[in-house]
């Protein structure tokens, strides 16, 4: 096998950190009266897990997901981040918070990191990691003006090229969509992908966070099914060729 062929080998890994709003029974007392907030965007990312499962199935990629609510522990934040624990779990005893990390946070992040390390260890393999999220249409009274956000680090060429190609493919397929880069968040903010960039070199690891406006999964129906199909098709076109 030639070096040129090796350099073009890619592997896709799909993750979903906010796939559900489950609260383990041992912490249920801390969430009494919190059913409404757990069911909101603060508790999980509606539609994200459905989308991640479709990506993984269609593109034959490994999928890692969590259904424990982000209000129990925020899997997409570093251990030192002030939002690691929520208003419900921050007041818990230190031993309980440590137990949450050991049972839910560390196993998830370690499993993803090990899989990426295994794939990066294969000669010539480039790993493309897609972390799937959705965002609330209105936050703190401000309407988010995008349908799709692609979060990446502009300093990493593989990520820059992947985002540009995916955005172009989406707009060609769906000119009605508003697709923005590094919106509604910055791609370099604290997060799991940001952490993994420090672990793996820019020429072997490309991490993108996909953000989809929750107005689509919350409404459901034809518009949501069409968006899933278009995102999947354009991801397939661009994730293995850019």
Rg, alpha carbons: 18 Å
- Unreliable stretches (pLDDT < 50, length at least 5) are 1-7
User: What is the H/E order?
Assistant: HEHHEHEEEEHEHEHH
Largest sheet: 6 strands, mixed
- At CATH level 2, the architecture is 3-Layer(aba) Sandwich
Quick one: overall form?
globular
- Mean pLDDT across residues: 95
Count of discrete domains: 1
Strand order of the largest sheet: 2-1-3-8-6-7
In what range is the share of β-strand residues? 15-25%
Our count of helices gives 8
> Which range best describes the helical content: under 10%, 10-25%, 25-40%, 40-55%, 55-70% or over 70%?
25-40%
Total beta strand runs: 8
Q: Quickly name the level 1 CATH class.
A: Alpha Beta
State the CATH topology.
Aminopeptidase
Structural class: alpha/beta
Q: First CA to last CA: what distance?
A: 20 Å
CATH superfamily: Zn-dependent exopeptidases
Description:
- This protein has a single domain (3-238), classed as Zn-dependent exopeptidases (Aminopeptidase), CATH 3.40.630.40.
- It contains 8 helices and 8 strands; from the N terminus they run H-E-H-H-E-H-E-E-E-E-H-E-H-E-H-H.
- The chain has helices spanning 3-7, 35-38, 48-59, 94-120, 157-173, 192-199, 215-219, 221-238; strands at residues 10-16, 63-65, 126-135, 138-139, 142-143, 148-151, 179-181, 205-213.
- The strands form 2 sheets. Strands 2-1-3-8-6-7 form a 6-stranded mixed β-sheet, with helices on both faces.
- Helix 5 links the parallel strand 6 and strand 7.
- The longest helix is centred in the middle third of the chain and has 27 residues, at 94-120.
């Amino acid at each position: 096998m030639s070096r040129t062929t090796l350099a073009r080998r890619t592997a896709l890994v799909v993750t979903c950190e906010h796939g559900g709003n489950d609260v383990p029974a041992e912490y249920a007392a801390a969430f009494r009266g919190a059913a409404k907030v757990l069911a909101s965007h603060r508790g999980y990312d509606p539609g994200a897990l459905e989308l991640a499962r479709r990506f993984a199935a269609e593109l034959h990629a490994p999928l890692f997901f969590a259904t424990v609510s982000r209000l129990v522990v925020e899997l997409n934040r570093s251990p030192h981040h002030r939002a690691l624990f929520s208003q419900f779990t921050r007041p818990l005893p230190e031993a309980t918070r440590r137990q949450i990390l050991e049972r839910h946070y560390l196993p998830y992040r370690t499993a993803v990191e090990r899989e990426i390390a295994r794939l990066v260890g294969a000669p010539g393999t480039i790993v493309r990691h897609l972390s799937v999220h959705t965002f609330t249409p209105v936050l703190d009274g401000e309407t988010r003006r995008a349908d799709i956000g692609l979060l990446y680090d502009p300093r990493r060429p593989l990520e820059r090229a992947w985002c540009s190609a995916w955005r172009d493919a989406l707009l060609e397929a769906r000119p009605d969509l508003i697709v923005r880069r590094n919106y509604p968040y910055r791609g370099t903010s604290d997060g799991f992908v940001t952490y993994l960039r420090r672990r793996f070199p820019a020429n072997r690891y490309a991490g993108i966070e996909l953000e989809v406006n929750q107005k689509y999964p919350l409404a459901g129906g034809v518009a949501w099914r069409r968006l899933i199909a278009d995102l999947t098709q354009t991801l397939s076109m661009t994730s293995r060729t850019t």
